[in-house]
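Worked example 2:
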Amino acid sequence: MRRWRSAVVAGVAAALVLCGALLGAPSSRAAVPALRIGVLLPLSGRNAAAGQSNLFGMRLVVDTVNAGGGVTRLGGAPIELVIADNASVPVSSAAEARRLIEMEHVVFILGPYATPEVEATLPVSERAGVGLISTQGSFDELFRRRYRGLTTVSMTSSQFGQSYAGFLEWLNKEHGAGIKTVAITYPDNDYGQTAAKAAARGLAPAGISVVSTRGFPPTAQDLTPIVLLLKQLKPDAVVSIGYFQDGVLLDDARVAQGYTGQPIWVGGSASFTDDRLWRTLGERVARAALGPRTFGLAQFDSAARTPGVQWLVEAARRRDPHAIVDQAMAAGAQAAWVLVEALEHGATAKPRELAAAVRRVRIPPTSPRVSMPQFLSGVAFDASGKPLDPTALFVQWDNGVKQIVYPESLKTRQVKLR
């Protein structure tokens, strides 16, 4: 009799479970509310290519976490991305941030991309107590202002500038480049001005003279005047700071004016190292402009042999065999991994606490969650939210493929000057 009753009870319980499933009763996983994370990027407009690649990297990370059971310290909560396009326009970035926070009720924002977008967004996010991780925001003054919710995975403007100066000094010492004079070009915004000044300051102790620092409008459509000025000045090297579109315009103008053999050109970051650059320029222009005396500063390269880069490349290719695994994708993935670490170790989804937890994130360099090899010592941030001790990579193009020449621990070939 007891066995019969046990069997009946078990059968009824199984039937109830089955009925609940058929009627759509929530499972324990589904009962955990999703973590609503805003994504604020330039998915159209001037910076669209970078924004779309940022988003691809973010989705790779979020899908990986959700497939693995969500954020375990928060009961297996899945991450839901709420996406907004600021169209590469700062004022739109502020408006979209307000919408994400007030109407979509996001607890954190991944993005924005560029410094002007970040500057416009911060008054909105700070007032609401919602943190953000920029993928390319780099203006030093933003971090001196000690915003509570701002973090970036990008090197700052001054760190960029110092990296250019250090690399030119290294070329002279290690490869006899003979660089005595340098001209610096830059987009005339906060990022470009700060990077240019830092590069000039760094070159002085190395005995290298700066013969010109020339800015151009961030929305310029033709950089021929810059190239004509450089031809007249005849510097030994040029540091060309800029965004992807700036590099395309500059290389087009260099080839059109027959100014590609001399001097040594060092540009970046996306303007000289984006994986779309060779294809965008076309074979004729790319071969002429991206020759053996041209170098690009980068924060990422898919040739770097690190666990994090390997994970990113494999995950991206599984999603799309034709995906271009570039710096913007790596930055998007890195921002997402930092947020995941903060969620896991901070065990909170409260906006202000989460923003603080992001800055406490530490990821060792051997982790597959370090998608940007600039973090040679691991991912870490200072109290202002900027990266601690990043190391810039420098690359050269070789028949449409980039090769890392610096730093030594990541190089895939030796420097070529001829």
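The chain has 15 helices and twelve strands. The first strand starts at residue 35 and ends at 41.
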